[in-house]
Design brief:
With about 290 residues, the protein is mainly β. It has a single domain, classed as Neuraminidase (6 Propeller). The protein contains no helices and 24 strands. The strands form six sheets. A four-stranded antiparallel beta sheet has the order 1-24-23-22, with no helix packed on it. A hairpin with a 4-residue loop joins strand 12 and strand 13. The chain is globular.
């Protein structure tokens, strides 16, 4: 087994290489609570917050960023599933005290408001899947409460899914579809938790706990049986990363700069990105790290 090397700087885009995290090209816009989807050399990145809220989006080709237009409305702490050719931005907030129920669709060139909004407005939720098979779970509707509800999307309409075993917010999610997803970490109203759950299309079940309790949220990507989680927060920001093989978590290399509120996308085995967010002092970043495996 090859030794895993540390992930690089916080706020940068991190690509999960065979154990080595290296700097990617900075996004050029300093912000946190963004969202990303796609693969390491073909990623879509949108929204976020700093002094104000953002509705912009960009595409990363592995070396440079290019504008991909604006979403119909600004949002942060939202979800984004899909690829650079077809994506769905889900929920989020513009105030930090009330969630959005709206979604926006990207067709590879332009954004448009999607007609099918979610039932429960929320932000800071777990997100997984694709524009034709999406899943959201948990989060908060007002910045204080914790939700356990799940909603599933089939490409045309949202419907209720099985509830999380534990309500929480400021969590991460990943997975290939609305029938194969993970919900990771979060805040239960008192502390960060190490809770990890797997979804089979109808019900959530507990899986091996995370190595460390984390909220923030951390970055996450991959599938239900091959996932990567990196960064996060619990009293201080984390630089650690962990891989899940469907049964157990194993330690990977550290990010060069600890971070939280960053974006994650890609896969655990062929390349993942960690994008922007906040460092241990809370400073927002635009830097990028990349590592592939």
């Amino acid at each position: 087994m090859r030794a895993q090397q540390p992930l690089l700087a916080y706020g940068t885009i991190a690509l999960w290489l065979p154990g080595t995290w290296s700097s990617g090209t900075a996004t050029g816009v300093i912000k946190g609570a963004t969202a990303a989807c796609g693969v390491a050399n073909n990623a879509l990145y949108c929204g976020g917050e700093n002094v104000g809220n953002y509705q912009d989006s960009s595409i990363y080709n592995g070396s440079t960023w290019s504008s991909s237009g604006n979403m119909p409305s600004a949002r942060y702490s939202h979800g984004l599933v899909g690829s650079v050719s077809s994506a769905l931005a889900i929920a989020g907030t513009t105030t930090g005290s009330s969630g959005l129920a709206t979604t926006s669709a990207f067709n590879g060139s332009t954004w448009a408001a999607d007609a099918s909004g979610i039932s429960t407005a929320r932000f800071q939720q777990a997100n997984a899947g694709s524009p034709s098979s999406a899943l959201i779970a948990g989060g908060t509707s007002d910045g204080a409460n914790r939700l356990s509800t799940t909603e599933s999307y089939n490409g045309s309409a949202w419907s209720a899914g099985g509830a999380l075993t534990a309500s929480r917010r400021v969590m991460s999610g990943c997975g290939a579809s609305n029938a194969a997803a993970l919900a990771l970490g979060g805040y239960d109203g008192t502390v960060a938790v190490a809770t990890a759950e797997s979804y089979n299309g109808s019900a959530w079940s507990a899986i091996a706990s995370l190595t460390v309790a984390t909220q923030g949220p951390p970055g996450a990507c991959g599938t239900r049986t091959a996932a990567l989680m990196f960064g996060g927060y619990s009293g201080s920001a984390f630089a650690t990363s962990y891989a899940f093989n469907g049964t157990a978590w194993t330690t990977r290399g550290n990010l060069a700069t600890a971070r939280y509120q960053h974006s994650g996308c890609g896969t655990s085995g062929s390349g993942a990105l960690a994008i922007a967010g906040r460092d241990n002092g809370g400073t927002r970043l635009d830097t990028v790290e990349r590592c592939s495996g």
